[in-house]
Amino acid sequence: MNFSIEPFTIDSELYNIKEIRRLYDLFDVISVHKVQNPLLWGLYTLKKNEMEFNDDTYEVNEWLLYHVTATKNVQSIAENNLDWRYTSRCRYGKGVCFSYCPLYANRYASCAIGSTHEVEYDENLMHKLLTMGFPKEAVKKALFFTFNQGIDQATKWLLDHITDHNYAETFVPSRRNFNNEMLVERAFIICRVLVQKIKDISVNYGLNMIPNSFDTALSKNGMVYVKFNDYEFYPQYIVYYREHNVSQYVDKNSYNFNSNQNCYYNQN
């Protein structure tokens, strides 16, 4: 499948996307990327057309919403999309969860991701870099600090750091850097999400679907949108970030976010 994750520079498009600007206010943003996946985009567009055709009495809204995941999942999401089949113990049913509030998305993803999960290295990239002659421990560092994003990024890191005194020494990943901040372990996936008819739901860990007349479930607290059908969302942007110490304790209700009704986003 042809897809790419292209790094963003601080340009006009990035600046005009308020959902990305919010993250700069609340977190230590490391890098921003845009997903280009023609197949997923085509399936998403077809789904939107299908929803409009099946019920033209309700407008099909297109919102940008947040989903937080571990960085090890980014490549798979960019290639295959988010998948409700991997959902485990979701408070509002077995679907893909989104929120318009990044603080809320980060806080509850933190609980799910945990603080001690094992670091995973891309075995294919590891093999290629080792055959190029780079030391194994240096390769581990390169893959860790470039988030397994690709051979070019890892090679550049290895060449940039080749003179480091501990270049080939045993690498033991730590969750904290010299500033005592969390290392990058997660990423915001900012998705286009199709929303037409919403069903309010209470906490229900066993919920597998909602009535066919609805396409989106909304938690009673208004923070979580759940999608149970494929291709009703598209992973548009990826934002790697660190969590500021202070952002762990910010009250999600104290930040002046636009309400979900103002999240409508439409861009050709």
TrEMBL record:
This is Poly [ADP-ribose] polymerase. The gene is Parp12. Pfam families: PARP (PF00644), UBA_7 (PF22562). Its EC number is 2.4.2.-. It is an enzyme of class 2 (transferase). Residues 120-161 form the UBA domain. Keywords: Glycosyltransferase, NAD, Transferase. It comes from Sipha flava (yellow sugarcane aphid). One of its GO terms (molecular function) is NAD+ poly-ADP-ribosyltransferase activity. One of its GO terms (cellular component) is nucleus. Residues 1-195 form the PARP catalytic domain. SUPFAM superfamilies: ADP-ribosylation, UBA-like. Coiled coil: none annotated. InterPro entries: ARTD-AVP, Poly(ADP-ribose)pol_cat_dom, UBA, UBA-like_sf.
